[in-house]
Amino acid sequence: MSDRTFDPPGRTRVYVARDEQFLGSIALADAPRPEAREVVAALRGQGLRVALLTGDRRATGLAIASMVGIEAADVYAEVLPADKAATVAALQRAGPVAMVGDGVNDAPALVQADVGVAIGSGTDVAVDAADVTLLRSDLRGLLDALAIGRATVRTIRRNLFWASAYNLVLIPIAAGALYPLSSLPGWLRALDPALAAGAMALSSVTVVVSSLALRRVVADR
């Protein structure tokens, strides 16, 4: 009766007794969220490695992983709460790691990860430990957060480029670098203060317009 071959895949069997008398057993399971497989496929389609970190038995972890499309080699099962952060640290040797969790046991791993993501419906400890909190209990919010984060980084780099370009070009001109070139118009050889102010304003407008484009990314999500 206690043979684990009777355990359905993906379930953990709990045995019940009273006064040292065996009464029966109950098979418990955590069903994956309906959107989990879609999210895993989308992340892997972006070239990201997706792993499952769980304290359940390996057979249970493998069953859940197969349901959502995670490779068996990326299943870390029977991990104690105290060891989750160490597992994340080991994975970080290969590159940045994002951790998604919602329980008290996930908090140390969320802190250890480069980016900790908590589900809004999770425990307060997990939410406090995370860098990002998904307000909805929908894993597709992770894809939204990733898209917004990448768009933000692109915008920062673009703004730095334009700011640097303006400074590299116009500061030497304002300092008189073109003054010896008599063939150029006088307003360009000795930069008029009004033109310098206009160039500064144009630089600011470029950065602001570029940043406002992020609103379109958020709206699309």
Automatic annotation (TrEMBL):
Gene3D superfamilies: Calcium-transporting ATPase, cytoplasmic domain N, HAD superfamily/HAD-like. GO terms for cellular component: membrane. The keyword Zinc does not apply. Pfam families: Hydrolase (PF00702). GO terms for biological process: copper ion homeostasis. Keywords: Membrane, Translocase, Transmembrane, Transmembrane helix. SUPFAM superfamilies: HAD-like. GO terms for molecular function: ATP binding; ATP hydrolysis activity; copper ion binding; P-type divalent copper transporter activity. It is found in: Membrane. InterPro entries: ATPase_P-typ_cyto_dom_N, HAD-like_sf, HAD_sf, P_typ_ATPase. This is HAD-IC family P-type ATPase.
